[in-house]
Every structure is written in C-alpha cells, then in structure tokens.
From TrEMBL:
Source species taxonomy: Bacteria, Bacillati, Actinomycetota, Actinomycetes, Kitasatosporales
Membrane topology category: Multi-pass membrane protein
Chief location of this protein within or outside the cell: membrane
UniProt keywords, alphabetically: Antibiotic resistance, Cell membrane, Membrane, Transmembrane, Transmembrane helix, Transport
UniProt cross-references to PROSITE patterns, sorted A to Z: MFS (PS50850)
Signal peptide: none
Protein's recorded name: MFS transporter
PANTHER family recorded: MAJOR FACILITATOR SUPERFAMILY MULTIDRUG TRANSPORTER MFSC, METHYL VIOLOGEN RESISTANCE PROTEIN SMVA
InterPro entries according to UniProt: MFS, MFS_dom, MFS_trans_sf
C-alpha cells in the first residue's frame, strides 16, 4: 500500500499544473519575478543616501549599481541549464534562500565592499530565479492558449516591478533608512520558500551524459565580459580604452569558444540547433531589439523630463507610469491578441506601434506638453509589451520542453544584452548629436564648451559657474542641443524598430495550439505501482 501511495505522490508532483492549482503556481512564480524586477530598480533612488552613509569611492559606487545586473546576466545560462539537469524547482528554491540571505546582508552593510558582495549574491539568486520561473511555467501550462495567458500575466508583473521599484524605494526612504529597500525582500522570501516547496512541481530535462561544467563557466565568463564592456560603452567610455576593449574581446572569445564546444559535444549544455528554427532565433532577435529601444528611450526620456522640463524625480516617475500601465494592459490582453492574429502579425504590429510612438515623441520640445507625453508613452508601452510578450511566447513554445530552462535563460540573457546595448548605442547617438551644438557658443570659452558637451547636467554646472549672460547663453544652447539630440535618437530608434517589424516575417503566421499531453507515469513509477500491487 505504501508503495502505491509513494508512486501516486510522485505522479501528482510530476503532473502538478494539470489541475486548477496551476493558477496558484502562476501566482507563486509571479511573486518570484516581482522580487527580482523590484531589486533591479529599487536601489536607484537610494543611491544618494547610500553615498552619504557609506562614502564609497567612484569605482565602488559604480560597482554597487552594476554588480547585480552584471552577475545576474552572466549566470542565467549556467543556472537555467543546471535547473534542466538537477530540477528547476530545486534551483528556484535555492535562489529564494540565497536572495533572502543576501538581502539581509545588503540591508545591514556597514561599508561599500560588503554591499557590493551582497549585491553580487543577489545577482546569483536572481539568476537562479528568473529562468526557473519561465521553465516551470512552460511545464505547468502545457496548453499553449493557457500558457500564452500565463506569460501575459508574467510579463505584466515584470513591468509592474520595474516601475514600482523607484516609487517604493522613495516611499521607504522617506520613513526609514536606505537598507529598508532590501529588507522588503525577506518576508516575501520567507513566505515563498515554504509555499513554493509545497505547491511548485519538480521537473527536469534530459539527463543523458555529464553536465558541461567547463561550458557553463565559459558562458558565464563570456557573458560577464560582454555585458561589462557594453555597460562601459553605455557609460561614455571610449571603445578603445583597455578597460572597455579587453572585457569585450575576452567575452567574445569565450562565447565563440563556448559555441564551438557545444557543437562538438554529444550532450551539449545548450542545444544550438534551437537557433536553426526560424521562430526561435527570430524571437530572440526581437527581444534584443525591443529592449534596445525600451531601455535607451526610458533613460533619455528620464533625462529630458528632469533636465529639460525640470521635473522632480517623483514627478518624472509619475509621468512614466502610463507607459507601465499600458504595458500591463498589453500583457493581460496579449493571449487573446496572439490567438486571433498570430505571432507574425502581433510582433510586427507591436514594433510598428512602438515606431509610431517614437515618431510622435519627436514633437517634444523645450516646453512641457503633458498630452503629447501621455499619448506617446501609452502607445510606446503597449507596443513594446505586445512585441515582448509575443516574442517570449513564441520562443518558449518553440523550444523543446526538456530544454525549457536553457531556452528561458537565453531569452532572459537576450533581454539583459538588449538593455545594455540600447544604453550604449542610443547613448552614443545622443552624445554625437548633442555635443556639436555646443562647440561655438558666443562668449563661452572653448574649454567650458568642451566640458558642457559631455552631458546636459554638466552643461548646467558649467553655466552656473560662468553666470551672467554667458551662462544663460550656454544653458539655452545646451537645452536646444539636447532636444535636437533627442530627436535624432528617436529617429534612429524608429529605424531599428521598423527593422524589427521586417524581422517578424520569419515568425509563424498562426498560433499552433497542440493538444496538451496526457500525463503518463515514468517506467520507474509504473514499476513501483506494479510491485506494490
């Protein structure tokens, strides 16, 4: 009798999600994602308080901000494929525990080095959580229509987390010390651990052959170097600077070696044959392009709102909220739209809507126009989320279920790389269009003009030091140059988005909804049942 009970319990755990509790599983996975998304942005508003309390140097300050996304992006493939081998639920629960411990260490950090180490541990925990949520979602929703709805809710939660992070951080800083932005993770993790252990199903991919540890480390090192180099480019560092060029070259060499190694192995860490499928490779490319546009535009829009329109950080966050609400709406209706129009038209229309929003925003000038910004941000949020949702759904559905952890990791890595490349590329375009306008301002010394050409914020500082008519002239010229640079950057973004719309023609025309597979016990479970009988 006990053998029968044991086999039945195993079968129930393997087929969790076939019943109504799959929606409860989705709630648990969304809470996991919300924490990771919050932690990516919640520290931004706390940086002044951290700087005042811990007195970090310039390099330490940079690493406090960048360590989390760097480590997280680097380890996504490692932990995504490890979950396929040892169990996705197991990796997710370990990520919960590590994330909670690292949050406590970060909140109580007394110096910058401890905070950097804690942020690195948070990145490790985030890399364990993010691909596991998508791969478990792929398992518990075998029906593609339901899975599309689940992914829509999942992506809407991601949008909420990214937007709520700065607002929540600002609220906590008004009432508590800066460490409170990390402490909010601990009670949620204390709840998520036992609930996840109880409700989440365990799943694994194929376990033929040994896990490629060397390949996993090569992928991690290569991604770390590549993302680090891209972030330095986005920060305005020259491409030929050793600290920028060396990580890029080493990262690219390791990734090329990783690809060659995977092609030679009988049991590769990541099955690169997935990229031979047009729907999979196109979806990954669309994710990169969409994030490239979103992050670069959000960064420049925030600078425009604060430095040109002179809005406070809180007012800036509130102005950007319509973008988030539109993204949430697109995620929630995405399943219906995908079923009706298919991946090809949905991704293409999403890119076209985003391009239309970007072109609309070229009407922004030196004066505030709330109606223009509202309509542009709503259209931008809805279009981008429509694209990202359909691309993620197509990518995940195209990948074999046994490779879902690796596929999810590839998608999340594309997301992170697109964000980094967007800041670097659009930031470079912005700087190239902005600086020439300050080269010859009447009455302003050449040295002051060169310094003002670095950024609008620096131009304001130089103008304040000059004072009088010269300072006013420099300030006016800097604002006009920034708006001109913004228009050029928006036009470049629109071109990239239209390229994405053309790329979408390689996606399937219709959404193929295969019948969900019937849960069948493994031979081991069947044998246990026969023996017990």
């Amino acid at each position: 009798m006990s053998g029968t009970t044991t086999a039945a319990a195993r079968l129930r755990r393997r087929t969790a999600g076939a019943g109504a509790n799959r929606w409860v599983v989705l709630v648990v996975l969304c809470v996991s994602l919300l924490l990771v998304a919050l932690d990516a942005t919640v520290l931004h508003v706390a940086m002044p308080a951290v700087t005042e309390d811990l007195k970090p140097g310039a390099i330490e300050l940079l690493w406090i901000v960048d360590t989390y996304p760097l480590v997280c992006a680097s380890l996504l493939i490692l932990f995504g494929t490890l979950g396929d081998r040892i169990g996705r639920r197991r990796v997710l629960l370990l990520g919960y525990g590590l994330f909670g411990v690292a949050s406590g260490v970060a909140a109580l950090a007394q110096d910058a080095q401890v905070l950097i180490a804690a942020r690195a541990l948070l990145g490790v925990g985030g890399a364990m959580i993010m691909p596991a949520t998508l791969s478990i979602l792929r398992q518990v929703f075998p029906d593609r229509r339901e899975r599309a709805l689940a992914i829509g809710i999942w992506s809407a939660v991601a949008a909420v987390g990214a937007a709520v992070g700065p607002l929540l951080g600002g609220f906590l800083l008004e009432h508590y010390w800066w460490g409170s932005v990390f402490l909010i993770n601990i009670p949620l993790m204390l709840v998520s651990l036992p609930v996840g252990r109880l409700l989440l199903p365990e799943s694994r991919g194929e376990r033929d052959g040994p896990w490629d540890v060397v390949g996993a480390l090569m992928a991690a090192g290569g991604l770390f170097g590549l993302v680090l180099g891209v972030k330095r480019l986005g920060g305005g560092e020259p491409p030929i600077a050793p600290a920028t060029l060396l990580p890029l070259l080493v990262g690219a060499a390791l990734l090329v070696g990783f690809v060659r190694r995977q092609r030679r192995r009988a049991h590769p860490l990541v099955d690169l044959r997935m990229f031979a499928r047009p729907a999979f490779s196109t979806s990954v490319g669309c994710i990169v392009l969409a994030m490239l546009a979103l992050v670069g535009l959000e960064l420049i829009a925030a600078q425009y709102l604060q430095l040109v329109l002179r809005l406070s950080p809180l007012q800036t966050g509130l102005r950007l909220l319509p973008l988030t609400f539109a993204a949430m709406a697109a995620g929630l209706v995405g399943s219906h739209l995908l079923h009706r129009f298919g991946p090809r038209r949905m991704v293409a229309v999403g890119f076209c809507l985003t391009a239309a929003a970007v072109l609309l925003l070229t009407a922004m000038g030196g004066e505030d126009d709330p109606a223009l910004l509202l309509s542009g941000f709503v259209l931008l949020g809805f279009g981008l989320e429509t694209t990202l949702f359909a691309a993620y759904e197509s990518m995940l559905s195209e990948a074999p279920q046994e490779q879902s952890g690796g596929a999810a990791a590839i998608g999340e890595t594309s997301y992170q790389l697109g964000a980094g490349i967007g800041i670097a590329l659009l930031g470079s375009v912005m700087n190239a269009a902005y600086a020439p306008g300050l080269s010859s301002v009447p009455g302003v010394p050449a040295g002051a003009s060169r310094a003002a050409g670095h950024s609008l914020g620096e131009a304001y500082e130089v103008a304040d030091r000059l004072g009088g008519a010269r300072g006013a002239a420099l300030r006016h010229a800097a604002r006009d140059s920034f708006v001109h640079g913004l228009h050029v950057t928006l036009l470049v973004s629109a071109g990239l988005l239209l390229m994405g719309a053309l790329m979408a023609v390689r996606l399937p025309r219709v959404m193929h909804c295969e019948a969900p597979p019937t849960a069948v016990p493994t031979s081991r479970e069947a044998a246990d049942t026969r023996v017990s009988a």
